[in-house]
Amino acid sequence: MMRFAAGLALAVTLALPARAAVDIQEVTSPGGLTAWLVEDHNIPFTALEVRFRGGSSVEDPLKRGAVNLMTALIEEGTGDMDSLAFAEARDDLAASFSFSSDQDSVGVSAQFLTENRDKAVDLLRQAITAPRFDADAIERVRGQVLSNLRASEKDPGDMAGKAFNAQAFGDHPYATSGDGTVESVTALTRDDLVAAHQATLARDRIYIAAAGDISAEDLGKLVDTLFGALPATGAPLPARAPFDLTGGTTVIDYPGPQSVVLWGEQGIKRDDPDFFAASILNEIMGGSRFSARLMTEVREKRGLTYGIGTSLAAYDQAELLAGQSQIPNAKVKDAVDVIKAEWAKMSEQGITAEELAATKTYLTGAYPLRFDGNGPLATIMVNMQLIGLPSDYPKTRNDKVNAVTLEDANRVAKSLFRPENLRFVIVGQPEGVTSTD
Question: What span, in angstroms and rounded, lies between the C-alpha atoms of 26 and 266?
């Protein structure tokens, strides 16, 4: 499946039903940093989630992959500890650290026991503020990244995603993979990694959430300890991405019995007043239920694929309404025709009152809320901050879903679903399908 990275994760967060019992405290540290907290002293451990806005989209375009490689090296030694010594110190504290990056953010995840909190935080601070970037670690991790990149070059899903993004986003960083290329990653130097670290891990773009056995006062101190020594500002954030995608079909030849079919068009901003209506429409068209229209029409009625789905994918600087499926080559043409027909039907006829009611029920309570543990809760809270949602969102979210009327949904359907704008990117050898302008 195409990796829309943080965009999809944030869209999933918006699709979660809300649990009104979640009480989020907004904490300001003595040093002026803001964090969100849900206290839970029943279990003596804390989950911490941190995001630095910007991610690989702020790196030098000639150094593509620098942020990804840098992030992978943060745990590979700090101070007088090499990678092995650091891992042993972390394990001795029964702590868990992980680091990640995508186009829009660098992420830090940590979990630690209350009894080891101070030592775990100090170890994490060293890793975040002063990674060693040893030569042997760089070459070892670079080799792993290069192996993944070479595999990605032959993965039809990755191929489709890269071609789609290249057509959609012009010369914006979103047009190319934040993982870089074999050539760009091979050429990266230690100085490039240091520059990537300074560009992304800065206090002016930080979002922090914690859940578990910690007080607001202690969290404020923890936050300053961890991040107080980071640079005040990082590299400039990118501008809005152009949206150059036009209707048509792109076929990329790739041998195999089936094709990856990816399609999409312009989406909707997360802060648009019609976003909740769009979310309902997306769920009806290609959401996670077997009753979704595309599942019904493409899979159940015609047997053209095993799975198919759509999503509202929101980057910081761009939005997509997109879908993907894997389809036997002989059935691709029929499947594409059905998708286009369903897109047109949604635009022209909208949805029914029955579909609206059933989808509201599903989105507001048909499956358990994922605030079921400190880790998931901290992740959801930090994503809420990135999206720009208020801290009381879990208590108001269902009301916003239920407020969408049939008239709202069908009005939005006409503007959101535009079959003439759909671009299909097909990687495989589809029978009877060729590239168009």
Answer: 34
